[in-house]
Specification:
Helix content is 76%, strand content 0%. It has helices at 2-13, 22-51, 58-80, 88-92, 96-127, 141-144, 146-168, 173-181. With 182 residues, the chain is mainly alpha-helical. Helix 3 (58-80) packs parallel to helix 7 (146-168).
């Protein structure tokens, strides 16, 4: 009974996502897996080659690239899945207009952070063409590019949540209200 009920909750809340953005989320999750695997592998190889006395110095640059892209892809994916840091414990206990206001406020804060990432990340990206990574002489802009892209995705996913939340109630809202009605 619990599994069936849980399945119904998931199916009912599925309408809270725009299906057109599902492929974007899928790519982000794949990118998270690739970057996590790449990061772990390059750290391991860095430790092994240093222990053998023949370090591959370029591995540090590759490791940093996997780390940076993984962090920002993960932030965007977490926003889409609503797994990011938010005050969900407090809002899940609320119902009605109070929940709507608090959920809207939370998402407007996330939207503001995403838009700041777009603007200031873009400025860092432009400035990054004047600074280079030491071994490869690759512009730092190659790392900074992840920031505005992630910010744009975070903003897009937050707008998706706001629009769907205003139309249909925020995720789980109707489930909480049903419990109080019973």
């Amino acid at each position: 009974m619990t599994q069936r009920r849980y399945g119904l909750v998931l199916e009912r809340d599925r309408h809270l996502k725009w299906r057109a953005l599902d492929p974007v989320e899928h790519v982000l999750m794949l990118l998270c897996g690739v970057t996590l695997t790449g990061f772990s592998t390059t750290v391991f190889l860095d430790v092994v080659t240093r222990s053998l006395g023949h370090p591959w110095l370029w591995l540090q640059e590759v490791t940093m690239t996997f780390f940076v892209y993984g962090i920002f892809a993960g932030a965007a994916a977490a926003t889409r899945r609503n797994d990011h840091l938010c005050l969900s414990a407090i809002t899940e206990a609320m119902i009605g207009r109070t929940r709507l206001v608090v959920e809207t406020f939370n998402r407007l804060v996330v939207l503001g952070a995403g838009l700041c990432m777009v603007w200031f990340g873009y400025l860092n990206f432009l400035a990054g063409f004047g600074n280079f990574r030491m071994l490869s002489m690759t512009p730092l802009a190659s790392l900074y590019a992840a920031i505005p892209v992630s910010g744009a995705l975070i903003a897009l996913f937050t707008v998706e949540q706001l629009v769907n939340g205003w139309r249909n109630g925020f995720a789980g809202q109707s489930h909480v209200e049903e419990q109080f009605v019973r």
